[in-house]
Amino acid sequence: MGLPSLSRRQLLTAAGVLAGGCAAPRTVGEGRTGLRYWHLFGGGDGINMRVMLDAFRAAHPHIAVEAATFQWGAPYYTKLGMAGAGGRAPEVAVLHLARLAGFAPGRLLDAFDLDLLAQHGVHADDFPDGIWRRGGIDGKQYAVPLDTHPMVLFHNTEVCEKAGLLDADGTLRPIEGAGRFTAALRAVRKVTGRPALVTETLGADCIGPWRLFSTLYSQLGGTILTPDAKRLAIDDTKALTALEYMRMLVDEGLAVRRVDYVGAVGVFNNGDTGFYLNGEWEMSSFLTTGLPFSVTRVPNLFGRPTAQADCHSFVLPHQKDRGGAANEAAHAFVAWMLKNTVEWAKGGHVPAYLPTLAEPEYLELTPQSAYRSVVDDVALDEPAWFAGSASVMWIELGAVFSGVLTGSRTPQGALAEAKSRLRTLLATPNPFGGAA
Fold first, then answer.
1. Which residues does 178 contact at the CB level (< 8 Å), separation at least 6?
2. What is the Cα–Cα distance from 312 to 145, expressed in whole angstroms?
């Protein structure tokens, strides 16, 4: 299922080995406080994070930050969970917000001291209410959001201009409703003679089809699970509306039928299509090639302007003796990073710290700031242990809905299979022992 079924004893034993081998002293040199920071940012994100870390170190010479980058996905989360189980974890780490429920807050994670964050100028009302509340459990705040990274619509401005889809100022004319989006795709196909839209449809651990379904289904007002994430809550009519629209896109030749993640990036980057649906993190791929492109929010096709998303967030992995100077340094670090997210936004992510969204330096970022309003309309997974970025649910349902886009499954068959797999996940205990 993508995660090992580990007993508490196995977790504690492994955590002692892993965390013991990388533990660092809490004080470093003359009056300097050691701060260990774990994250999973590679590529362009990794470059931006290093710039931010260097700036933090320059501004805080009394804090010695030891940053460690780990492999994205299940390897990172397994290591982080085991370190927290052993109580010898780093002072601060990154966690996708939708994965919080699976990390046994209160056991694998420690709560933030909101008074301490406030001393550094960070408060709950500095964030979108929905995103902030997702970081809280039982009256305590276990995650502080850094950003949101939603599905967005990339578009080739030269192709869209030829198709008559741009306003006089060169921006994409607003598209409202499934019919108008379909018409826009047909206009692009008429110009290029090829499918107008590309998005990931297949490949190992393919999650693009799930993210597309989640976006369309959320726009219909559908949910996957009940609010407590204990029972299935799929609305068959709404789910089939989303799946049948996805199938129509490939059946009519409006979208590329068979393409993996890397291939989809290449198709758009080569100018072979007008539109590309993916997360905004691919911004860096196109900024470096000179491609004439821009980015907007995913159009409101079915009544609600939502888009599938997750959020990078800061967490405090559990330490047996958390407190003192190292814990104060962790809170200072988180607050400073939040207040300096213009650099982070250059890679495409939308800062969750609302004051950043009004900064002139951020507003000058083009096209990164163009879709900033989506921060209020993100559709995160329900709080289940098996949900969130790089999760078993994304991989399982990505494989199922891939068949709708490639032609190997009917929408009805895919829905039945998706519900079956979700029931299996609901019946599977959390391997880290958190909330079901």
1. 245, 301, 302
2. 6
Euclidean distance between CA atoms 242 and 219, whole angstroms: 9
Q: Which residue's structure tokens are 């032609």?
A: 407
Token pair recorded at residue 61: 């010479």
Encode pLDDT of 289-348 as tens digits.
Answer: 999 999 999 999 999 999 999 999 999 999 999 999 999 999 999 999 999 999 999 999
Write the DSSP symbol of residue 68: E
Cβ-contact 219, 297 below 8 angstroms: no
pLDDT by residue (tens digit) across 240-277?
A: 999 999 999 999 999 999 999 999 999 999 999 999 99
pTM: 0.92
H or E element that contains 9: helix 8-22
DSSP characters for 394-420?
HHHHHHHHHHHHHTSS-HHHHHHHHHH
Residue keyed to tokens 């400073």? 336
Buried b (16+ CB within 10 A) or exposed e, 97-131: bbbbbbbbbeebbbbbbbebbeebebeeebbbeeb
Residue 172: CA atoms inside 13 Å, Cβ hemisphere, count? 29
